[in-house]
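Data availability (excerpt). All sequences and predicted token strings are deposited with the supplementary files. A representative entry, DNA helicase RecG, is shown inline so that the format can be inspected without opening the archive.
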Amino acid sequence: MADLEKLQRFVESLSENDYLRLRRGFGIGLYLYNQLRDIAPPYLLENLQRFDRMSFEKKKVLLQELGGFLSSYRSLRERKRKLEQVKSKPLRDFLIPLDRLSFLDRSELRVLQGLGINTLLDLLFYFPLRYEDRRVLSNLRLVRPGEKVVLRLRVKDTKRLREGPYTAEVTCTDGDEEIRLRFRYRRSDFIHALYRRGREILVFGKVRTYRGERYMVHPELLNEEECGRIVPVYYNRIRGEATRISSKTRQKRIRKAIERSVRRTAPYLPEYLPSELLEKYSFPPLKET
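Structure token line:
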């Protein structure tokens, strides 16, 4: 495992004195790749393998992404260290009904009960279907076709389309490169109000290319609170009156309820696997997972 504090200082030193060390250095990408290959996400590792062949501007952007990742990872390790000092509670404390949990509101309870989640233990063990990487990228040059990413952009122009499969198109920029957001609605007037010229936006979607032009189809417009991390995506087809709630709203309520429950109660979960199995298979403690 790399010395993360030392590595972060090295990354920060590359930007000092107007990036003098970055301009003169050689083999920086290879060094960073070898130090981080066991912990960094795939998109960072792929870019680090190409780092030494990148343009100077691209290197600067990637260093910013790398600095953010190292800060987040060090914070996560510190939280794990604190968890080890928390005393567990008996399992019966986790079999209480959801409606006795003061930190869940009524709207969240409706959605959770519609999913058949009835106790705190049910809630803590309701696992995601998949995860989405919603860490923000501010440079289109780092995006590869087919990737689902969050982009920070500025709106340049919005227009109606008379021909083709789409009815509205929004042209955006990261400051250098452009990307188009395309929509297919019968009535697209609201697109002009939502994507006003000059507005700074955060959008999530799959980046596609056609004849060298980047575009997204029906991207999701996000706020700052919904970005900057990897988020879980849960099964949310439910029964009962909560079916009238949109899928996106149900997803948000499930995510917030589980995040709050995990933060408040998971550190006290008792371990049920024998220590021999934990050691034999290198399983992390339950409260950590």
